[in-house]
Amino acid sequence: MKIRSLAAALCAVLLLTACGSSDSSSRAADKISGTDSSVSSAAESKAESTSDTQSADENTEPETVSVPEQVSEPDNSEPETPPDESSEPEEKAPPTYEEKLASVDGSYKFTSADGEEATFAELLEKGTANVTDMGKGFALFYSGGGAGNMFFDLYFTNDGGATWEKGEPYSLKNGKLQFIRIEDGRILIFDRPVDTENNSPDVHEVRFYPEGRLVNDNNITDLWFSEFSIDGSFVYGIDAEYKGGYVMDVTLKALADESETGMTLFSGTVELDHDTLQPLDPKESTEGMSSSEAGNSDTESISEDSSEDGQSSEETDDTSAE
Hints:
This protein is an alpha+beta fold. Among the domains are: 95-219, no CATH class; 226-322, no CATH class. Helix content is 32%, strand content 30%. The protein has helices spanning 2-59, 97-102, 120-126, 221-225, 291-308, 313-321; strands spanning 109-111, 117-119, 129-133, 136-146, 149-157, 165-166, 170-173, 175-181, 187-193, 202-209, 214-219, 236-244, 247-254, 264-272, 279-284. It is elongated, with a radius of gyration of 58 Å. The protein starts with a helix and ends with a helix.
């Protein structure tokens, strides 16, 4: 009896246990099913939202931004010309005479044996110095006289006056001297020697030669006065004023009592030959001349016109002398 009761109780426990497991499984399945349903609903909701957004984007027209038109001005500039590679580079202009003068220091002081002093700038003013190129110059500095001559020391520089070297001495006959520096580097010297038998002054073209450390003296007296129609009986002197380049004003006066106070034989502008420094067709001026001198000049002008008509130069000279 007890065994039956125990078996019946055991069966009842087993039955209850089986029913509980079934309910739990069912609830778990329902819970999983609910979770899946929530996930599915969320996914469907997101998909619908995305679809709605895309639909809204498709139905929205893009905003148009209006940009004002820019009016471009016409380009009037000339087109750039490409450089001509075949053309030679532009040559630099040669230095001017003023630039050459400025390239040599004028403060250097020369001293003679007897203590006389002079700067390069002072010698330039006297006409006894000149420049031949940039930084190159020479000077003739009076050193004394004797035996009817005047002596000069020659100095030259090649470095703008920083240093000076001494060259060969130079001499002229004792007399009245006038030095004129020409812009091409030469010096023109008029010398009226005291003991000369010539009617005219002596004319010297002086050129410096650095290779020989000396100046070359070329006597051009005959060439210089050949263009002036002056009576050979006159003994005369000269006064010249340099105008630059190859032009100068010249006055020739007859000597009276060994001074140039006599009659004016010529007064006018003279253009010099670039190579020889010989006067070319002197142009006489009557301005400032006395009436008798002006009359003499007019006679010479008429004679020159007549010579063009066939008169000989000898006849012209005779008329000028009259």
